[in-house]
Structures are given as structure tokens and as C-alpha cells.
Design goal:
The structure is a single chain. The chain has 163 residues and is mainly beta. The longest helix is centred in the N-terminal third of the chain and has 13 residues. It has a 10-stranded antiparallel β-sheet, with no helix packed on it. The radius of gyration is 18 Å and the shape is globular. Helices cover 8% and strands 56% of the residues. A hairpin with a 3-residue loop joins strand 2 and strand 3. The N and C termini lie far apart (50 Å).
Length: 163
């Protein structure tokens, strides 16, 4: 009896599936929460390619002079951090992700370093992703913890692009 109960508990905990964020998402609504209000705080479009071992993130944002800026990065699904150099800003950054206990939301943390000093933290961005129950809306909460300017926070909702 105890063995069956243990097997049942083990199987049910293994059955908790993580949310799949794969797809292309277009910004529908942006809500300023705290601090300075930046026009490019949220990407206008985000594409996630969720694989077993990694999450590939492609985004399209508006640059400082109104031009379209594309970025692409990948992060390990097991929580190990990735250290890379940003092509847009030429700064070192470290990116990692962490699943919530129920595997329904994802926290992506990116630490950016000062351009001239790759050992000094400039800012930390924390993005919390979750999906609506029907999977058609992506909710994104984004916070920027700044070391040289004012912290800010914004929320956005994205609609899934259908083919």
C-alpha cells in the first residue's frame, strides 16, 4: 500500500508539465507601473522557440532613433546562466531563467555590466512571463533595477500571432 502511494505521488509530481511559450507574440497593451517611462521598455514583438534544453528569444524593439532593433539570445532551460556580449550595446551580460514551482510562469533575469568595466553591474532586468488560461495571451512584467539611474517597471500583454 505504501509503495503504491509513493509511486502515485512520484508519477503525479512528474506529470506537472511546464508551460510552453513558443510562438510569436505581438504587443497589444503596455502599462507603465513605476519610474521613468521608456518607449522601448517592451519589445513590439517577441518570438520564443522553446526546446528541451534551451529557450531561444528573438525580439523586435524601437531603437533610440526610432529604427527597428532586433535581438536574439538563448538561455538554458535548466537554470544555468549564459554569459555573452550584446551586439547592440557591446556590454557583457549574464542571462538565466527560473520556473515557478507550478511550471506556469517563467522568470528571466539579465544582468548587464558597465561597457568599460565588465565587472561592474550597470542594471538588472527581471521579466516574469505567464500565459492566459486559453494560451492566447502572454503577460509580461518587466522590472529594471538600475545602479546609475532610477528603477522602472512596466507590464505588457501580447497576443499570439496565428498563421
Amino acid at each position: 500500500m505504501i509503495v503504491r502511494l509513493l509511486l502515485l505521488l512520484l508519477c503525479s509530481s512528474a506529470a506537472v508539465a511546464q508551460t510552453n511559450f513558443s510562438g510569436t507574440w505581438n504587443l497589444q497593451n503596455k502599462q507603465h507601473v513605476l519610474g521613468p517611462e521608456y518607449g522601448n521598455a517592451l519589445a513590439s514583438a517577441i518570438t520564443f522557440q522553446q526546446q528541451t534544453d534551451s529557450l531561444i528569444i528573438e525580439s523586435v524593439s524601437v531603437g533610440a532613433e526610432g529604427q527597428e532593433v532586433k535581438s536574439r539570445s538563448a538561455v538554458s532551460m535548466d537554470g544555468k546562466s549564459l554569459t555573452a556580449l550584446s551586439k547592440n550595446s557591446n556590454r557583457k551580460y549574464i542571462k538565466s531563467l527560473k520556473w515557478s514551482a507550478d511550471k506556469k510562469s517563467l522568470v528571466i533575469t539579465t544582468v548587464f555590466y558597465v561597457e568599460d568595466n565588465p565587472n561592474e553591474v550597470d542594471l538588472t532586468r527581471v521579466e516574469i512571463l505567464s500565459l492566459s488560461p486559453d494560451g492566447k495571451q502572454l503577460n509580461l512584467e518587466k522590472k529594471s533595477i538600475e545602479t546609475r539611474s532610477e528603477n522602472w517597471e512596466v507590464k505588457g500583454t501580447y497576443a499570439k500571432k496565428t498563421n
